[in-house]
Amino acid sequence: MTTRPRLLILIVAYNAEKNFGAVLGRVPRQLAQEYDVDVLVLDDSSADRTFEKSRQVQREGTIPFALHVLFNPVNQGYGGNQKIGYHFAIEQGFDYVALLHGDGQYAPECLMDLVRPLRAGEADAVFGSRMLEKAAARRGGMPLYKYVGNRILTRFQNWILGASLSEFHSGYRVYSVAALRSIPFALNTNDFHFDTEIIIQLLLAGMRIKELPIPTYYGDEICRVNGLRYAGDVAKSVLLARCQRMGLFYDRRFDCEPGATEHAHYQPKLNYLSPHSAALAAIPQGARVLDLGCAGGYFGGMLRRERGCRVTGVDQFRLGPGVEMDRFIRHDLNDGLPAVDLRDYDYILLLDVIEHLLSPEAFVNDLRTALTLAPEARLLVSTANIGFAVNRFMLLIGQFNYGKRGILDLTHTRLFTFSSLRRLFEQGGFRVCRMQGIPAPFPLVLGDGPLGRSLVAINTALIRIARGLFSYQMLFVVEPQRSLEYLLREAHHEAAIRSEGDERRVAKR
Question: What predicted TM-score, i.e. pTM, was given to this entire model?
Fold first, then answer.
């Protein structure tokens, strides 16, 4: 015998005494033929007799499903009530959970259709939409202002999130419990825009959302949503999620993207001004290159393939698929320099590496010591500029959020400005030959099209005006200064030569 899927019908109720019994009575009985069905009524501290009427139905056994009735002693809000219900579904091992409202606004008769795509493996969440059938919402009594607001907000949300849903604001939904388990829904708001935040999480997690048409019904139920406040909350949530994807903000609610590969954030950026393209312009044909922290070796592999450079890569992770180098050393730079002879290299790359080191000062000192016998080698160093205008603005409004990429990447241990990075290398025994500001990687976020390239051009122009303010990253070209030991040795050597010459001149007299 095959085990039937377990379905929980979650009815969120607040002062729903009037319509609640009808909602329960309209749940399709045939669901029991395909699923093991339980119904959970979650009364959110109602002031009426919603709980008592639910208990009466439970005692009478008038529905063919196991009925659970719970009461929140403190009102949790629309979103908070859902969180408790979804936690119940996870804790009790259900396969699917369907959300119904106790006021009867959504037709329980549609449940069979809404659950079916989940069982067929076609979706991770199914939403009932009142907007899929043209004009159906208005025929069902949706007020014009709500209809217009729904359409405008949905279009805005689709545009910001890159989605294509017909409606973000229906409360009739069926979720796979496995999908709920994979997203941090417990961190979402307790307010009405919980529904938007959970959609954002599903989209970021790459979950499949399917929409099916449902009838619209507006009766005499009391609307408890402040429309303007709701619209503002929705807009704020989607904009924050978008900012997080751009690396400008971090919120654990929206940290839902599937696990990335080791080097997902470190692909070479060569089609626009970036540390990679600037470094490429500085390295001549056939140079000998040591790529420290090569991050999969994509940039070093390209130098070897297209510039004829001899490249040695060093990184704690393995090379990316298909990448070839003349030599690769698997090594964690936090343990110091690898066993290489720096006299064998013309250029040493530290591209987006220095900010990951636990002690950049110690590393720079070790590097300078190792370069005593290779004073002609040049270093190309890039890192994020914490003084970037966006970071300053975020501080102004009280935000300093680490994220999965960008200037405040969670893996960064140190942050630099132009002056602090220059001081790091000068006090470590290097001379800074050149400092260059790098614009934000707009093509990486917005696509390598006219908009992304135009923003790079504008950012580049602003860097010429105020480099420390408008540079997203910095590229330094540095070379080792002559050490005191070297200079003393040179002084002894030169003195010996001059003394010998002076003695010959005296002897001739």
Answer: 0.72
